[in-house]
Amino acid sequence: MELSHPTLANYSFQRQLGKGSYGSVWRATHEPSGTKCAVKIIKLKDKSEYVMRRHALMVAREVYILNKLSRDKNNNFTIRLLDVETNPEAHEDFSKLHTVYLVSNFEQTDLNELMAD
Predict the structure, then answer these.
(1) I need a labelling partner for 98 at 20 to 30 A (CA). Which of 9, 63, 79, 89 fits?
(2) What are the DSSP calls for 45-110, one per residue?
(3) pLDDT, mean of residues 80-101
(4) Does residue 4 fall inside a structural domain?
(5) Does residue 2 lie within any of the structural domains?
(6) Residue 101 lies in a domain
(7) Assigned domain for 112 exists
(8) Reported confidence tier of residue 57, pLDDT bands at 50, 70, 90
(9) Residues 6 or more apart from 80 whose CB is under 8 A from it?
(10) Per-residue pLDDT for 111 more than 70?
(11) What residue numbers bound the domain in which 72 lies?
(12) What φ, ψ does residue 91 adopt, rounded to 5°?
């Protein structure tokens, strides 16, 4: 089954790096700067409004923590949050929010590999 590449203004997507219960992570390039990055795509659609709100709170918490860690210049052990985007419809009407894109620096390895060393 071939994956369809996501679309997001200013980013070109190369390949999917992983998939989890809340979404997927893709290797991408920020076109204006040429910077390689990772984009975590979180889908907030669900049948239950309760579950959707829970997912939205989880995303907000992740953005808050990553943003705080990204500002700490002495912290070299976490990814840096570079950008947060949403589906375009949500820019005009927040009730239409269904996708959140978390853009971070691209690392060649993941946390499991680092902990094994």
Answers:
(1) 79
(2) --S-HHHHHHHHHHHHHHHHHHHHHHH-TT--SSPPEEEEEE-THHHH-GGG--EEEEEEE--SS-
(3) 86
(4) no
(5) no
(6) yes
(7) yes
(8) confident
(9) 70, 104, 105
(10) no
(11) 11-116
(12) -65, -35
Distance from chain centroid for Cα 82: 10
Residue with tokens 């070109």: 12
Residue 113: half-sphere exposure toward Cβ, Cα within 13 Å: 4
Q: In whole angstroms, what separates CA 21 from the centre of its chain? A: 13
Question: Which of helix, strand or coil describes residue 31?
Answer: coil
In this prediction, residue 115 carries a pLDDT of 59
What rounded mean pLDDT belongs to the chain?
A: 83
- The CATH number given to whatever domain includes residue 72 is 3.30.200.20
Closest by Cα among 85, 83, 80 to 105 = 80
Q: How confident is the model at residue 47 (pLDDT cuts 50, 70, 90)?
A: low
